[in-house]
Amino acid sequence: MDKASAPSPASENEAGKSTTPPASAKQGARVQSVGRAVKILLTVAQSERGLKSIDIVRQTGLPKQATYHLVHTLVATGMLTRGENNAYVLGLTAGTIGEAFRRQLSPPQRLSGLVRRIAEETGETAHAVGWWDGEIVNLSTRRGHNTIAAAEVEQGNFRDAHARASGKLILAFAPEDVREQYLSTHPLTRRTEHTIVSLEALKRDLETAREQKYATDLEEFTPGVCCLAVPVDGGISPYALTISSPTERFHKNFDEYLATMQNIVASTGNAG
């Protein structure tokens, strides 16, 4: 090669630049893909009968080609599968994760026993509720034997604690900084016409719950359903036990329900 055709140092530097993305860029792309895949799974999970590809794109707001690629990957791994009308639904692998979630979410054994006894002795659907990863979560449910029962709150539900008797009770006994942090990051969504959506009114309700050592939800979460929650260990532990009942039966039997629940907790040395 003659001098005229030899590359200059400057051109050598230009030519020597790598077109391979740096490691940080690759990592960022992987994180973005994982986030998008999770968003797709959650969107499908929250649908009634699954979603077609175009519906997934519309509801997630993700780019069309990226969505199609991720959906195919999720199908290949068993997280999604095609259901009726070519709609994508959760696959068997997702079911395995769901089962593991319910198993790992199980409350301490003593709480399961209390939930069972409360359901048996009141006849109403009973729940154990507690803190889980910064949320107030339904950990366990036991259906009562009454012919007409309130709809069950599914295990793992954590939404709108301000409208649930158990949520209000747990917030009432939580340390002040924990309570304030929770209330500052969770909107007081109006679920029914009876839901408390004023922060001042809710704080007054929490103070009352702390003083009387029980909390109620009077059709604040679901129309036609009332709930009663009592603390475990007098409010020291981060759990609450609750029942849900049709409104008319709830008011008729309230005193009996409260006494039964408090006696069951006290009989196991958890009254505080």
How would you describe the overall organization of this protein?
By secondary structure, the chain is α+β, with helices and mostly antiparallel strands. It has 2 domains: 24-97, Arc Repressor Mutant, subunit A; 106-267, Beta-Lactamase, CATH 3.30.450.40. It is 49% helix and 15% strand. It has helices at residues 9-15, 23-45, 53-60, 64-76, 92-105, 109-122, 165-173, 176-185, 199-212, 247-267, and strands at residues 80-82, 88-90, 125-132, 135-142, 215-218, 225-231, 239-246. A hairpin with a 5-residue loop joins strand 1 and strand 2. The radius of gyration is 26 Å and the shape is elongated. The N and C termini lie far apart (91 Å).
Would you kindly provide a brief summary of this structure?
It is built from 10 helices and 7 strands.
Domains (count): 2
Number of helices: 10
What is the overall silhouette? elongated
Task: Find the CATH superfamily of the largest domain.
Answer: GAF domain
Mean pLDDT: 86
Provide the low-confidence segments as ranges. Answer: 1-16
Helix content: 40-55%
SSE blueprint and pairings:
Elements: H1 9-15, H2 23-45, H3 53-60, H4 64-76, E1 80-82, E2 88-90, H5 92-105, H6 109-122, E3 125-132, E4 135-142, H7 165-173, H8 176-185, H9 199-212, E5 215-218, E6 225-231, E7 239-246, H10 247-267
Antiparallel strand pairs: 1-2, 3-4, 3-7, 5-6, 6-7
Helix pairs in contact: 2-4, 3-4, 6-10, 7-9
List the defining traits of the structure above.
single chain, 272 residues, alpha+beta, Arc Repressor Mutant, subunit A, Beta-Lactamase, 2 domains, five-stranded antiparallel β-sheet, two-stranded antiparallel sheet, 10 helices, 7 strands, elongated, disordered N terminus, GAF-like_dom_sf, WH_DNA-bd_sf
